[in-house]
Amino acid sequence: MVDSDWRMIKTYLERFSIWMSQPSIRHKVEWPTIALLLICYFVWGVSTTWVAEIWLPLGMVLACVSAALHSSLTHEALHGHPTKSAFWNAVLVFPALSVVVPYLRFKDLHLAHHRESILTDPYDDPESNYLDPIVWADLPNWRKRFYRINNTLAGRLIFGPVMGTWAFAASDWKAIKAGDRRVLLGWVLHVPAMTTVILWFSLVGNMPVWAWLVSVYGALSILKIRTFLEHRAHDHASGRTVVVEDKGLLSLIFLNNNLHVVHHMHSMVPWYRLPNLYWRNKDRYLGRNCGYVYPSYAAIFRQYMFRSKDPVPHPFWPKP
């Protein structure tokens, strides 16, 4: 390579450095999220191929963890990360690694959930785990028993994914039959997202279908740990959102959404900036959420593994 070539390369590198240093460019793409996406896909890919062939249990564990992480990255995407383009954010998380929730449905329902005034509302909050006391009173005893079991952390881990998926799919099917085209579009777009995953297993993957489905169920169970007490019934809307001061593996899988009140107050802030916001302004956030805080997920497991945190019927809702 001659000197002129080196000078040309150096010139281009200098121009690229200047371009990247401009704030309007530097903040256009959130590179930590891009890097984590690449790691997530790499781990999922090798876990369903090479690792699954060497030792299936390890492959299942890695596929489970990476699918749960992908769901958290999908949550980042619908909140406007890691780019300023809603289209490209959706493309980046396009493969349906967690299978059951179409991206567009997740986006519509979750953004509706972010209206603070409706949090925990049995009707208007699409992520509420509470029931209207009138509805609760009319349920048969066997269903009440399942709901009570599901209100313990152990029950949420074992039964939560299937109960939540069934309720979600049934509600969407009812909406589709009623002519809701937006809901239908969400499921139509889910077909190619699922096809991508199916093609991977058909052409490349070495993991048995049953093992993959178990890992998917495990991923959904992991996510239920986060949502188990994410919101509580409280007479003040601002006091309904939790902080779990965890700094371990689960906080990484959840992309710091354990600091949930911080996310609700700053929903456009990327995941890697949430801890700094919280620890610099801890008193402010705990004042905001009326002291709804836990020191770790280990503490939550000890306290609620076999015990309900809340009643199933909403405690502040009009009773029959």
Topology:
Elements: H1 3-21, H2 23-26, H3 31-47, H4 50-54, H5 56-78, H6 86-92, H7 103-113, H8 133-138, H9 141-150, H10 153-177, H11 181-203, H12 209-227, E1 243-244, H13 249-253, H14 260-265, H15 274-280, H16 282-288, E2 293-294, H17 297-304
Helix pairs in contact: 3-5, 5-12, 9-10, 10-12
Provide an overview of this structure:
- The chain has 320 residues and is mainly α.
- It has one domain.
- The chain contains 17 helices and two strands.
- A two-stranded parallel ribbon has the order 1-2.
- The longest helix is centred in the middle third of the chain and has 25 residues.
- 32% of the residues are buried.
- About 5% of the residues have low confidence.
Give a summary of the structure in a few sentences:
This protein has 320 residues and is mainly alpha-helical.
Radius of gyration, in angstroms, nearest whole number:
22 Å
**Alpha-beta content class:** mainly alpha
**Main sheet?**
2 strands, parallel
Helix content: 55-70%
Give a count of the beta strands, DSSP E runs of length 2 or more.
Answer: 2
Termini separation: 84 Å
